[in-house]
Write a structure and sequence with these properties.
mainly alpha, about 0% strand, disordered C terminus
């Protein structure tokens, strides 16, 4: 098993919200570390950030891990292709908000990444970055910006998307509804999700 195989397996497992995704992502990072493959290390860590924030909630080790990840990302960013840059930037911004509380620097990072996503035409990256803007706006107390940006992201969601992308959309919707105090809206979202989650683990992560 090589690092790239483990990373691909971990991404595929995470996109289907499988419980063993974290095992494959950590294995990928360790294999990349042995080979001093910094590009692979940065990509593996990026997916681990998403795993920690959106899926298993296991964030206890990330406040001290995030600084090293940010340095690594800064080191390898010039070597990445556009899609990889946007993926790493999304994880960096998410980490800045959740682990470091750096809202101002996240705003600057996000604006640059959004411009790059528009230019590249990457709809998936653009959706994720818009959801990051929603999260940032909620932390800043800018509810109107959060609502408007979420509507843009939801309206542009591709017809074909993974369970992980569905998770990002609906967790963001829950955050908005909780801030807004709209319990009936939250119940409607939960009912819609229940119909779309065929596997128990997907139902538990998305609904519970």
């Amino acid at each position: 098993e090589c690092g790239w195989q483990s990373l691909l397996r971990g991404i595929m497992r995470l996109n289907n919200l499988a419980e063993d995704a974290s095992v494959w992502l950590e294995l990928a990072f360790q294999l990349f570390s042995r080979e001093h493959e910094t590009r692979g290390m940065a990509l593996a860590r990026s997916w681990q950030v998403l795993q920690a924030v959106y899926v298993d909630g296991n964030q206890s080790h990330w406040p001290e891990r995030y600084g090293a990840f940010a340095q690594l990302a800064d080191q390898v960013m010039p070597t990445l292709v556009v899609e990889e840059k946007l993926a790493v930037t999304f994880a960096l911004g998410l980490g800045q908000i959740c682990f470091a509380g750096e809202l101002e620097s996240t705003q600057e990072l996000l604006e640059r990444a959004l411009a790059q996503a528009y230019q590249s035409g990457s709809s998936s990256a653009l959706t994720r970055l818009r959801l990051l803007r929603v999260r940032l706006a909620l932390h800043q107390g800018r509810l109107l910006v959060a609502r408007t940006t979420f509507e843009q992201a939801y309206g542009a969601l591709a017809d074909r998307h993974s369970f992980f992308e569905l998770l990002l959309i609906h967790q963001t919707a829950f955050d908005l509804l909780m801030v807004d105090g709209t319990l009936s809206g939250l119940q409607q979202q939960q009912a819609a999700l229940t119909r779309g989650c065929p596997l128990p683990v997907q139902h538990r992560v998305l609904i519970d």
